[in-house]
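Here is the promised in-class demo. Please do not try to memorize the tokens; focus on the logic of going from shape to residues.
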């Protein structure tokens, strides 16, 4: 696993549970407002954190922490993600997976192998505006398949959209909400400070 960081304690990233957050390196999207460009852009990647260091911490916190959030970057790009999730589950943790939904085969495998307890999928925009947000071409059928898998999984889940008002408007948010068609949808504010931070990091790396 290419691990870019670890938050050892959080009350907000896993609803209802005290958790740690593991950040994976690498992403196939290039979202304008990305809060973690150091996990996305190859020229900003730092030396990966040893997986054993993360697992040692999780073993030490058994009985104190309840859950582990695996996020990114985009975790489903990691070839050994399923094995990593299985190792976490063996320690007795609840697992939440954050994903952009672009790899439905991995989402399906994680669900079928009972390696996750909660899935959060980012819906960037109405499909006709997706590339404006992500900066890349995307496969609509893959996103729809992931959405269907998550909805039918029987697991706790949420879909969420970051409201980038430079591209999206209220009608776009309504359109995304219509795609979801259930109560497991939330809209989060796009923080200008985070965008400026991301832009400055990228700019600095390219100088």
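The designed amino acids, position by position:
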């Amino acid at each position: 696993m290419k691990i870019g960081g670890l938050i050892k304690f959080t009350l907000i990233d896993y609803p209802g549970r005290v958790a740690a957050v593991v950040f994976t390196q690498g992403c196939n999207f290039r979202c304008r407002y990305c809060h973690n460009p150091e996990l996305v852009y190859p020229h900003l990647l730092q030396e990966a954190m040893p997986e054993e260091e993360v697992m040692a911490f999780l073993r030490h916190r058994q009985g104190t922490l309840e859950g582990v959030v695996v996020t990114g970057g985009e975790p489903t790009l990691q070839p050994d993600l399923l094995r990593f999730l299985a190792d976490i589950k063996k320690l007795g943790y609840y697992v939440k997976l954050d994903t952009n939904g672009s790899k439905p085969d991995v989402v399906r495998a994680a669900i079928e192998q009972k390696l996750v307890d909660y899935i959060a999928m980012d819906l960037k925009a109405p499909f006709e505006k997706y590339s404006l947000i992500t900066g890349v071409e995307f496969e609509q059928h893959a996103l729809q398949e992931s959405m269907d898998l998550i909805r039918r999984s029987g697991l706790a889940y949420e879909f969420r959209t970051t409201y980038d008002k430079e591209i999206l408007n209220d009608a776009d948010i309504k359109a995304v909400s219509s795609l979801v068609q259930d109560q497991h949808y939330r809209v989060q504010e796009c923080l200008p400070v985070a965008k400026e931070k991301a832009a400055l990091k990228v700019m600095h790396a390219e100088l």
